[in-house]
Design brief:
Layout lengths: L1 H16 L11 E7 L6 H18 L5 E2 L2 E9 L4 H13 L5 E3 L4 H14 L2 E4 L16 E3 L4 H12 L4 E8 L2 H14 L5 E8 L7 H11 L5 E7 L7 H5 L8 E5 L17 E4 L9 H14 L5 H20 L4 H8 L3 E4 L2 E5 L6 E2 L2 E7 L8 E8 L13
Parallel strand pairs: 1-3, 1-4, 4-5, 5-6, 7-8, 7-9, 9-10
Antiparallel strand pairs: 2-3, 11-15, 12-13, 13-14, 15-16
Helix pairs in contact: 2-10, 3-4, 5-6, 10-11
Length: about 400
């Protein structure tokens, strides 16, 4: 009796030392979604979470179970602050004892979270933070990413804009997302014949872009040939409409940018014929996962799925397929199963590259068409840039 009582006491003590998320059981699959529910990228976060939950539903055929184990999703709000994101992830791994985590929205927050995954030896599936350094110089083996990286954005947009005789200036946010994006774009342009003549960076909370625009205009106005201002911007205060109001065409400068969420693409209606490249637009991919996402999102939310909804769904599918393939939630089993793994998403096939766990995926060269009945500029497909069409550099040093 004493031995049994002692064993029971030890079991209680062990469970107390490793508390689970509310309502979770030991056999449940516990996933933390650590993302910026509040702050400037709140719209992105909402889309990402809706997509993630819909993706779990789709991948499990509505059961929300994998191999008979219930999926429990625990949400954490980073508030877009690196220190809070780092603490939230540590809490998820430590106190909630999650098997893996997904997120965040901001590249700056993601970079703060990467060492936590390594410290705890648990997976962090990055979605949708973009900076190259996440799967580059700051990467570790516990990090996977379904979101596209800056190089994928840059190479796709370089294909769309880069030609002999073209000169480009950039305007980007002054943090990891913007600076990594410009660095990758500069590198990608090198093989196109185009020239990157000027780089302008602005704080993420900038409201007045007059000074930035004037510096760009001064640098570009006397250059001959076709000229673009390529904007790399995420979240609130998107400068496109404000700069368009300053009439850059006076200097022969055309505005160009990549894809964005539907609300931001309302500004694209003033830019018919503008070309760029995008990660996702609901009308472009043709596959069963996207058909389901578009149909179900319309039914449930009265609107098409957006940029980051597709990303959230892709992350969820990757999680489900990885656990199924591993037959386990053990971290080492998951890493072995997911390295090189291909899986079907709303964008078609993605493949986790073994060297850096970056998901290789299609991008879409578009041209804006304006329809008076549609609130935003419509990115019509010019060309799908498939995995084999883009040479995405491996940038990690480990």
């Amino acid at each position: 009796m004493i031995r049994h009582a002692t064993a029971a006491a030890l079991l209680v003590a062990a469970l107390a030392a490793a508390p689970l998320g509310a309502g979770a059981k030991a056999e449940d699959i516990r996933i933390a979604h650590v993302y910026g529910k509040t702050g400037a990228l709140e719209a992105y976060a909402k889309q990402s979470h809706i997509g993630f939950m819909m993706g779990l539903e789709y991948a499990t055929e509505g059961t929300m179970e994998i191999d008979g184990r219930k999926i429990v999703v625990i949400e954490k709000d980073t508030q877009l602050k690196p220190d809070i994101g780092r603490a939230a992830l540590a809490e998820a791994y430590g106190d909630d004892d999650v098997h893996l985590a997904v997120g965040p929205v901001s590249s700056g927050v993601a970079l703060a979270m990467l060492p936590v995954a390594e410290e705890y030896g648990k997976l962090l599936l990055v979605e949708p933070a973009v900076a190259d350094s996440i799967t580059g110089e700051n990467w570790n083996r516990y990090v996977f990413r379904t979101g596209r990286n800056s190089s994928q954005d840059a190479i796709a947009n370089a294909v769309a804009l880069g030609k002999d005789g073209v000169t480009i200036a950039t305007l980007a946010q002054d943090y990891a997302f913007g600076r990594d994006g410009v660095a990758a774009f500069r590198e990608a342009l090198a093989d196109t014949g185009a020239k990157l003549a000027f780089e302008e960076y602005a704080p993420t909370d900038t409201q007045d872009f007059t000074a930035s625009a004037q510096r760009i205009f001064d640098a570009m106005k006397d250059i001959e040939g076709r000229k673009f201002l390529f904007v790399i911007w995420a979240g609130a205060n998107n400068p496109i409409s404000k700069i368009k109001a300053m009439e850059p065409e006076r200097f022969g400068i055309e505005i160009a940018t990549g894809g964005n969420i539907l609300a931001a693409m309302k500004a694209y209606k003033a830019l018919p014929g503008m070309e760029g490249a995008t990660y996702y637009y609901h009308d472009i991919p043709k596959n069963p996962a996207n058909d389901w996402l578009v149909s179900e999102h319309e039914k449930r939310h009265g609107s098409p799925p957006d940029f980051f909804t597709a990303g959230g769904m892709s992350a969820a599918i990757a999680v489900v397929e990885g656990i199924r393939k591993a037959g386990s939630t053990d971290t080492e089993d998951l890493i072995a199963a997911m390295e090189g793994m291909s899986f079907e998403t709303p964008k078609g096939t993605m493949t986790f590259r073994a060297e850096d766990h970056q998901a290789l995926q299609s991008m879409y060269h578009f041209k804006i068409r304006v329809d008076p009945e549609v609130e935003w500029g419509i990115p019509e497909l010019v060309r799908e840039l498939k995995i084999e069409d883009m040479n995405i550099p491996v940038r990690n040093t480990r």
